[in-house]
Write a structure and sequence with these properties.
A hairpin with a 5-residue loop joins strand 16 and strand 17. This protein has 30 helices and 19 strands. The protein is an alpha+beta fold. Helix 17 packs across helix 22, helix 20 packs antiparallel against helix 21 and helix 21 packs across helix 23. The longest helix has 27 residues. Strands 8-9-5-6-11-7-10 form a seven-stranded mixed sheet, with helices on both faces. It has a six-stranded antiparallel sheet with strand order 17-16-15-14-18-19. A four-stranded mixed sheet has the order 1-2-3-4.
C-alpha cells in the first residue's frame, strides 16, 4: 500500500513543483539522477509547507539543496513575537518508500546547524543567501534566541534506527544544556500523504478512549469529560500522529515555551500534570459508550468517530515526547479531556469551538508583576520625576525610545547591569526567567528607583547602538559575539563606569554614557578573547552568553583585562570586512596565485556571496531578482578572470564586486573580490589561494590587481 501512496505523492509533487524548483545549479549524469533530485527538493518544499503554511512558490524558494547546502535542504523563518522560529529541513526521497537517514546525515545536519549558530552564512550556497537577512532578524531578537526545529523529511514509513535517533538527540542536547533551543521532528509518508490530501479531505479517525471519573453535559449539546492517562494519550498520537490535529487552527508547535514546560512537568513531576495543564479538547462526529454499564463518576470507554484535537495539540505532542523519553516515570501523569459531539449541533458550531478555545490569551508570570505596588510606584515616578512613560501591562503601546520604556526592557537592563553576570545570562537565555520571585526581587528590590532603572535602560541601548555599528564591518565569531553578546558586553561596560551615584537625581549620567561607545568596542575584543581562551576558538558563542557559569567566567576574565588597563585584543582579520579599503596586496596576490597554479579549471562556475551586513542589506533582493547576477565563469588569465553571467562581460573579481554593488545600491566602494567569489564545495578564491600558497611554501606578494 505504501508504494501506491508514494506514487500518489510523487505525482502531486511533480505537478506542483516541477516548474518552481531550481535545478540550474549543476548538471546531472542521467535524467534519473535529475528526476530524483527534483523529487527530493520538492519533498523539502512540501515539508516546509507542513511546518510553515505558504504557497508552492514560496516553499520552492525555501529550498537550497545542492552544493554547499551543508547537510540542509530548506529553511523557513517565522519572525513572530516574542520568539522567532527557524525550521531547517533535510529531505530524502525513495521510490519504494524506504528512504535512508544514517549517521553521516546526522553529522552533516548538525554541522550545518553549527554554522548557522556561528552566523557563518558564507559557507552556504547562493540560494541560501536570500534567507540570510531574515536569519539575522531572528538572531537579533532581544531577550532570547530563536527556537530551531530540525525536520527530517523522509519518504518512508518505518521508524528510524534507534542509534541514529540517539546520535541526533545527543547532538541536539549539546545545544540544550541551558534551556531547550533545538528540537527535531520526523515527517514521513503518512504526513506527506495527509498534507497533500488537505485538511478537508483528511482521513476520518475513529478510535476508542477511556475516561476516568467521567461526567457529561447533555444540554444543549452532548459532551463528555474526564481524565485520561498519559500512556493512552501517547498511544493515540503514535497511532494517528498529526492527523489528530486536522481541525486545529495550528499543528503542535514543538518548540514553544509552553510545550517545553509541559514536557518538563511530566518528566519531573508527573503527579502535578493534571493540575498544571489546561487539558485537551476533542471534537467528534459522534461519541458513544462502548458498553452498556457506563456510570458517571466511574471509568468509561467511549467509541469516537471523526475525532480531532482542536485545543491541546501542544499538550498531546509534548505528552508523546515525554512518554517516549521516560515511559515509566511519565506513566503516573493524568490529563483532563473534553469530548464534544457534533452529532446534533448546528452548522459551524465545531468551528466556533475551535476558534474560541484557541484565542484565549494565556496569563504570563510578568502579568502578575504588573500588580506589584513597586511597579505601580515606578510608573508614577517615571511620569512625575522623569516625565517619561513606563509601561507595565501587556497590550499597552510601548513608548518611543526617547519617551520611556517597558517593564520588560527595564528587567533586561537591570539584569545586564547587575554586579553578578549570572542575571545577564538568565535574561539572554529566557526573559521569562526574570519574573520568578527571587530573581525579580534581586533585580528590582523592594522599592525600585526610577533613575537607576532608566539609566540602566539607556546603558543597554547605548551598548547595542555601538554593537550594531560594529557589526557592519564584522563577520563570523566576531559578528556572533556582537550579536549574541549584547548583555554580556553591557555587563562588562557597566563594571568600567562610575555607577556609585546612578540613583541620585543630580548625577550627570551623560558623562558616563559618552564613554560607552569606546568601552563597548574594547569589551567586544576582550569578551571574544575570553570565550576563545576559556572554551576554545570553535566553541559556540551563544552558549557562552546563555549559560550562567560560562557567562560568569567570561565576564570575569573580560572585566579583569579591562580594569588592568591593557589595550583591547585586536580582532582577527578574518573576522573583519574591509570593503571600504582598496584591495590589499594579499587579496591581489590571491588571483595571481590561482592563475599561475592553474588551480581552477577554465569554465568553472563561481558563486557570489555577500560577506557583510551592509552588502546583504543592499544586495540580497537585487541578486534574487536575477539569479545570473550571482554567477560568473572563471578563466585563467592575467586580467579580467570572471565572465559575469548577467552581461557576459569580463571583469577582475574585485572590479566585478565593485560594479555589482554600485548597480545594487548606487555606492561606489572598493571591494575584496576574492573574499566574495566561491567555487562551490571548495571555498572562496582567498581560501583556495591560501591553500595553494601553503602547498608551494609561498608568501603573498605586494602587487596590484588589474581592474
Amino acid at each position: 500500500m505504501s508504494v501506491v501512496q508514494v506514487r500518489y505523492v510523487r505525482k502531486v509533487l511533480e505537478e506542483r513543483f516541477t516548474d518552481l524548483i531550481d535545478l540550474t545549479d549543476k548538471k546531472w549524469p542521467t535524467e534519473k539522477h535529475q528526476e530524483d533530485d527534483l523529487l527530493s527538493r520538492s519533498l523539502a518544499a512540501l515539508a516546509t509547507q507542513i511546518e510553515h503554511p505558504c504557497s508552492d512558490a514560496i516553499a520552492a524558494q525555501a529550498v537550497f539543496d545542492g552544493q554547499d547546502d551543508r547537510g540542509l535542504d530548506a529553511i523557513a523563518i517565522e519572525l513572530r513575537s516574542p520568539q522567532p522560529r527557524i525550521t531547517l529541513v533535510q529531505a530524502k526521497w525513495n521510490h519504494q518508500g524506504r528512504a535512508k537517514f544514517g549517521e553521516d546525515e546526522v553529522h552533516k545536519m548538525l554541522r550545518g546547524l553549527d554554522l548557522i549558530l556561528h552566523l557563518d552564512f558564507n559557507r552556504f550556497n547562493r540560494r541560501f543567501q536570500r534567507h540570510v537577512p531574515q536569519l539575522e532578524q531572528a538572531f537579533d531578537t532581544e531577550g532570547g534566541t530563536p527556537k530551531i526545529t530540525l525536520v527530517l523529511a523522509l519518504m518512508r514509513t518505518e521508524p528510524l534506527n534507534s542509534e541514529v535517533l540517539q546520535l541526533l538527540q545527543d547532538g541536539i542536547d549539546k545545544h540544550n544544556r541551558v534551556v531547550d533551543m533545538v528540537d527535531y521532528k520526523i515527517l514521513d509518508l503518512r504526513d506527506f500523504h495527509r498534507q497533500i490530501l488537505g485538511n478537508a479531505a483528511a482521513p476520518k479517525i475513529d478510535t476508542r478512549v477511556r475516561l476516568e471519573g467521567f461526567g457529561y453535559e447533555s444540554m444543549p449539546y452532548q459532551a463528555m469529560y474526564g481524565t485520561m492517562s498519559i500512556p493512552e494519550v501517547a498511544a493515540l498520537f503514535t497511532e494517528h500522529r498529526r492527523g489528530l490535529f486536522a481541525r486545529n487552527i495550528r499543528d503542535a508547535l514543538d518548540l514553544t515555551d509552553v510545550n517545553v514546560k509541559i514536557r518538563n512537568t511530566l518528566l519531573e513531576h508527573p503527579e502535578h500534570f493534571w493540575y498544571f495543564s489546561n487539558g485537551i479538547t476533542m471534537l467528534c462526529d459522534s461519541v458513544k459508550p462502548a458498553g452498556p454499564s457506563v456510570v458517571p463518576g466511574g471509568v468509561g470507554d467511549f467509541n469516537l468517530k471523526g475525532v480531532s484535537v482542536v485545543n491541546g495539540a501542544q499538550t498531546v505532542s509534548a505528552i508523546h515526547k515525554a512518554y517516549t523519553a521516560d515511559a515509566e516515570k511519565t506513566a503516573k501523569g493524568r490529563v483532563l479531556v473534553r469530548l464534544i459531539s457534533l452529532e446534533n449541533c448546528p452548522p459551524g458550531f465545531g468551528d466556533q469551538v475551535t476558534t474560541s478555545t484557541n484565542t484565549q490569551n494565556p496569563i504570563e508570570d510578568r502579568d502578575f508583576k504588573s500588580l506589584d505596588p513597586g511597579q505601580i510606584k515606578l510608573r508614577e515616578d517615571f511620569a512625575l520625576i522623569l516625565h517619561r512613560s513606563y509601561v507595565i501591562k501587556r497590550g499597552e503601546p510601548k513608548p518611543d525610545r526617547e519617551h520611556g520604556c517597558s517593564i520588560t526592557e527595564a528587567a533586561e537592563a537591570l539584569a545586564a547591569a547587575h554586579p553578578n553576570a549570572e542575571f545577564a545570562a538568565l535574561a539572554k537565555r529566557d526573559l521569562s526567567a526574570l519574573w520568578g520571585d527571587d530573581t525579580y526581587g534581586e533585580l528590582f528590590g523592594p522599592s525600585p528607583d526610577a533613575h537607576k532603572v532608566w539609566r540602566s535602560v539607556q546603558l543597554v541601548r547605548a551598548v547595542r547602538d555601538r554593537l550594531t555599528e560594529l557589526r557592519e564591518g564584522l563577520r563570523g565569531r566576531a559578528e556572533a559575539a556582537a550579536s549574541y553578546g549584547d548583555l554580556l558586553i553591557t555587563h562588562v561596560v557597566y563594571r568600567q563606569l562610575d555607577t556609585s551615584a546612578i540613583q541620585y537625581p543630580d548625577t550627570d549620567w551623560d558623562v558616563q554614557l559618552a564613554r560607552v561607545p569606546a568601552l563597548a568596542e574594547d569589551a567586544l575584543g576582550w569578551a571574544l578573547q575570553a570565550i576563545d581562551k576559556e572554551y576554545g576558538p570553535t566553541s559556540h558563542v551563544i552558549a557562552a552568553v546563555r549559560n550562567t557559569e560560562r557567562m560568569q567566567r567570561v565576564a570575569r576574565t573580560a572585566v579583569r583585562g579591562m580594569l588592568a588597563g591593557h589595550p583591547a585584543p585586536p580582532l582577527d582579520s578574518e573576522y573583519q570586512v574591509a570593503d571600504s579599503d582598496e584591495p590589499t596586496g594579499r587579496q591581489v596576490d590571491a588571483v595571481k596565485t590561482l592563475v599561475t597554479a592553474d588551480r581552477i579549471p577554465n569554465g568553472t562556475v563561481l558563486e557570489f556571496r555577500p560577506s557583510s551586513r551592509p552588502q546583504r542589506r543592499e544586495m540580497t533582493e537585487w541578486l534574487a531578482d536575477d539569479p545570473a547576477r550571482g554567477l560568473a565563469v572563471w578563466r585563467n588569465s592575467a586580467s579580467k578572470q570572471l565572465q559575469w553571467q548577467a552581461d557576459m562581460q569580463w571583469y577582475s573579481p574585485s572590479g566585478l564586486v565593485r560594479r555589482m554593488r554600485r548597480m545594487a545600491s548606487g555606492k561606489d566602494v572598493a571591494a575584496q573580490g576574492p573574499e566574495h567569489w566561491y567555487v562551490p564545495e571548495e571555498g572562496s578564491l582567498s581560501f583556495l589561494a591560501d591553500a595553494a600558497r601553503a602547498e608551494q611554501g609561498l608568501v603573498a606578494s605586494d602587487t596590484s590587481e588589474e581592474e
